[in-house]
Specification:
Radius of gyration: 22 Å
CATH class of the domain at 18-69 and 237-315 and 422-489: Alpha Beta
Strand order of the largest sheet: 9-8-17-18-19-16-20-22
Number of strands: 22
Shape: globular
């Protein structure tokens, strides 16, 4: 079993917001935050804690954006399988601010069980107590899915990747797959190691990913700090981890929260802004747009960002499909398993989080970069994936399937293709008082929960610096967006 640490529940949760408001400008400065995903939640909380009069407007009935839950019968189902790493400092600070850090688990040391159909059992990627990059040495030397020559070539390529300048525009213009081939990585090595990590974090295979973003993932996550890639996950449904506590904390901080309200227009008026919502007009001093790229492009006044028309379409999006299986018995003892040589990329045990009782098990198969699967009917996915699940977890062959359903996020992330950096604007726009947030903005990170939170913090700090109110410390983070509900079929 993977060793994890759980943050003890505090005796009482207190919000720093009242003290922050008292030290601020007394509430002057009206701000509309459009979008109630992690980026919008972060921006709204930071601004409210600094004394701004914040209204958060979200089109869906609940907050949480791309990290939300829904009910299916008696089960709480997460729309996707969202994990974080120890290096996700901004996201972990948000959990602290929401008072829910005790509701996540975090590995003491990175430990990934890896399975391959017909391959050796018991393959694992785990770190030792040595400093990076030596911390993975022993695990790689014993990694049975590659031969010794492939393992040694992987080490040489990893050391070369540490030296890649990910801030160079030429790096972003290159495909990660091309770089890997130039450094001796064959198809087996890419599938068994590079894409094992890369597809889950980038939502794209190496062949279609920017070298700059891939270098960021491996440099920050695996090659610089030994503990950076330790994996964490929620012990409760995502709605209880993000959306519900966020709404509570925002109201406690003095913010207004409007859900089920769609913003139709954002226009400058005098020294402020008008936000049109359902025939109403809200006049504010500043606006933070924490919405998906196509919505941002539609709402942004012309000339606000240095982008050609249609830039959001050029940035594009990548889908994620999740196949959910409820079995009549337990077939997996680990919290998650990664797959190699199979379309089943990762399998997560969601039994406890879902509230399933009676001795069965609920597994979720997460399929990133799912362009070829996003429109495949549920029946076909069931026929394809259940045999693959049994090939990874033979005990599943003896279990009875009680339920099988699919959730789809057609536009789960921006497409991290070569050249995508030029299509990711920063938090500040050319329009005074208008700011952008979202994991798709220029955070330097791929589209992750960490990137979303960093973008919200960056937009809030820019708004505080650009207004009349001083920035007042509230909760500490590090410098997304509302989404449509996933299609669920059975």
């Amino acid at each position: 079993m993977t060793a994890v640490e759980r943050v003890p529940e505090p005796a009482a949760q207190t919000s720093p917001a009242p003290a922050a408001r008292a030290a601020g400008d007394g509430g002057a400065g009206r701000v509309a935050v459009v979008g109630g995903g992690l980026a919008g939640i972060t921006a709204a909380l930071r601004l409210a804690d600094a004394g701004r009069r914040v209204t958060l407007i979200e089109g869906r009935p609940v907050l949480g954006g791309l990290t939300h839950s829904f009910r299916r019968g008696e089960l709480d189902v997460d729309n996707g399988q969202h994990v974080f790493l120890r290096c996700c400092t901004a996201y972990r600070a948000l959990l602290d601010r929401l008072g829910v850090a005790h509701q996540v688990a975090l590995q003491h040391r990175l430990d990934i069980p890896v399975r391959s159909p017909g391959g050796p059992g018991g393959a694992r990627l785990r770190r030792s107590g040595l400093p990076a990059p030596l911390h993975l040495g022993a695990s790689l030397l014993r990694y049975p899915l590659l031969d010794m020559g492939q393992r040694l070539r992987f080490v040489r390529a990893a050391l070369a990747l540490r030296r890649v300048d990910r801030d160079d525009p030429a790096t972003d213009a290159r495909a990660f797959g091309d770089w890997l081939r130039e450094h001796g990585q064959d198809a087996r090595a890419v599938a068994a190691l590079w894409d094992l990590v890369g597809i889950a974090t980038l939502n794209a295979p190496a062949e279609r990913a920017s070298l700059a973003l891939a270098a960021m993932v491996f440099q920050v996550g695996l090659l610089t700090d030994a503990g950076a890639a330790d994996i964490g996950w929620s012990l409760v449904p995502l709605g209880r981890l993000h959306g519900e506590p966020a709404e509570r904390c925002l109201r406690e901080a003095g913010a207004q929260v409007r859900t089920g309200a769609r913003v139709e227009r954002v226009e400058p008026r005098g020294n402020g802004w008008v936000v049109g919502v359902g025939g109403e007009e809200h006049v504010v001093d500043q606006v933070v747009l924490a919405v998906p790229p196509p919505v941002a492009e539609r709402l942004l006044p012309q000339g606000s960002v240095p982008m050609p028309p249609g830039w959001s379409q050029r940035l594009g999006s990548s889908p994620i499909v999740n196949a959910h299986v409820v079995l009549d018995r337990r077939v997996m003892t680990e919290p998650f398993v990664a797959g190699v040589g199979t379309p089943v990329q990762w399998v997560f045990d969601r039994t406890v989080q879902s509230g399933l009782t009676g001795g069965g098990q609920y597994l979720a198969m997460s399929l990133s970069a799912a362009d070829e699967l996003i429109d495949v009917p549920v029946r076909t996915l069931r026929e394809r994936l259940l045999p693959e699940l049994v090939a990874l977890l033979p005990a599943a062959g003896q279990a009875r399937v009680l339920d099988f359903f699919v959730s789809r996020e057609r536009h789960a992330t921006f497409r991290p293709a070569p050249g995508s950096a030029a299509l990711r604007p920063g938090s500040r726009t050319a329009s005074p008082g208008l700011f952008l947030a979202g994991a798709w903005t220029d955070t330097g990170w791929p589209a992750t929960m960490e990137g979303a939170v960093r973008s919200g913090e960056s937009a809030a700090l820019a708004a505080l610096a650009g207004g009349t109110a001083p920035a007042v410390p509230g909760w500490r983070g590090t410098p997304g967006a509302g989404s449509t509900r996933p299609a669920v079929a059975a």
